[in-house]
Specification:
Blueprint (H helix, E strand, L loop, with lengths): L2 H9 L22 H12 L4 E4 L9 H13 L3 E4 L4 E3 L6 H20 L1
Parallel strand pairs: 1-2
Antiparallel strand pairs: 2-3
């Protein structure tokens, strides 16, 4: 069982049979990847309540990507749980410190993507 599955089961009280896994077969510097596209399609279709990822770098490759993804999740009312950063973002949360920290993590994700 992956750490994201364990987290979802423990923190969100989700039955493992109801989890959806989204995987990309490739990496890159854009969010135009099959798993990411499918995830966002399901978010916008209203079929997800929460997204659990291990690291922020898995949903963004740039600050622009991060902001767009976070906005799309918030607009759909979907929570974002980022395990390694210990963050939970919920639609309607207005915590300037958390927003700044989220953006800072995005800066480092973009730096890592550009260095690869």
């Amino acid at each position: 069982m992956s750490s994201t599955s364990e987290y979802a089961e423990r923190e969100l009280d989700v039955d493992l049979a109801h989890l959806r896994n989204y995987r990309d077969k490739s990496t890159g510097t854009t969010t135009n990847r099959s798993g990411c596209r499918k995830l966002m399609s399901d978010v916008e279709a209203g079929t997800l309540d929460a997204v659990v990822i291990h690291s922020i770098s898995l949903i963004c490759r740039s600050i622009r990507d991060l902001n767009q993804t976070a906005s799309r999740l918030a607009d759909a009312g979907v929570e974002l749980h980022i395990i390694s950063e210990g963050m939970v973002l919920r639609a309607g949360d207005d915590d300037p410190c958390q927003t700044a920290l989220f953006q800072l993590f995005g800066v480092f994700a973009e730096l890592v993507a550009n260095m690869a």
